[in-house]
Amino acid sequence: MLNNQHSNINEGLELGDLKRLVHPELHIDEFKSKIGDDKDMVVLSFKVAGKEPAGDLVNFLEKGYDCVIDADTSTGEMDDGDYLVFVEITRDKNVHKNIETIMSDMMNVTEQKLSDWRVRYAKDNKETYFSIESLEELIPSSPEEYEAKFGSQDLDEMRSAAGLPIPARAPNTEYIRSLKAAAGIL
Questions:
Q1: Gap between the Cα atoms of 146 and 36, Å rounded
Q2: Cβ(130)–Cβ(119) under 8 Å?
Q3: All domains of the chain in start order, with CATH
C-alpha cells in the first residue's frame, strides 16, 4: 500500500544549475529603483539566458538574502532572447559586503569565478573587474554619499545629457517677475 502523505520538497538551485546561463557582468544602478529613491536603493542587474533560469535566479536571490528587498525579472526578452534580473538592496554601510556575499554564492550555482566577472557602475560609466575594492570605489554606501557624489540633476542637465534641446528661457527681469507673480507661478 502506498503512503499518501505529502512532504515539502525543497527545490532550490544546486551547484551548477545556472552554468553558462548568467553572463559574467554585474551592472549597478543602471536602472531606477521601483520601490524607493535611487539614493536609498542599489539596483543590481544580471543578464540571464532564458526566462526559466531568470526566474530561478530571482527565487534564489529573494529567498536567500535578508538584504534583498526585491528581485524581479524583465517582463519580456531582450533582442538576443536573454532576460534581465533586477535586484534591489538597501544602500547602507553593508552594501559592498552584501553584494560580495551574493556574488560569491552565485558562483556556486553558475560555476564561474568572481575574477572573471566585470562590474559596470552606470553613474560613472566605468567598467572594472569584480572585487570588494572596486565595489567600494564605485558604489556610494549611504544616501548622503550618493547625493554628495551625484547630486540631484536639474531638468536642463538631464535634457542636455540626453541630447534633447533645452527650451529658451525668458530673461529674469523685473517685468517678467511681475508677470510671473501675477500669474501665481513665482
A1: 14
A2: yes
A3: 25-150 (3.30.1360)
Q: Are 70 and 35 in contact (CB under 8 A)?
A: yes
End-to-end CA distance of the chain: 84
Residue in the structure block whose three cell numbers are 552606470: 122
Q: How far is CA 122 from CA 79, 80, 143, 161, 186, in A?
A: 21, 21, 17, 14, 36
Task: Provide CB contacts within 8 A for 19, sequence distance 6+.
Answer: 110, 111
Global confidence as pTM: 0.74
1-56 pLDDT tens trace:
444 433 333 357 788 888 999 999 999 999 999 998 999 999 999 999 999 999 99
Q: Give the neighbor-by-neighbor strand order of the sheet with 25-28.
A: 68-73, 82-90, 41-49, 25-28, 118-121, 126-129
CA distances from 53 to 22, 73, 85 (A): 8, 10, 10
* Contact in structure between 33 and 43 (CB atoms under 8 Å): yes
C-alpha distance from residue 86 to each of 27, 147, 179 (Å): 9, 22, 48
Structure-model confidence comparison of residues 1 and 96, the more confident one: 96
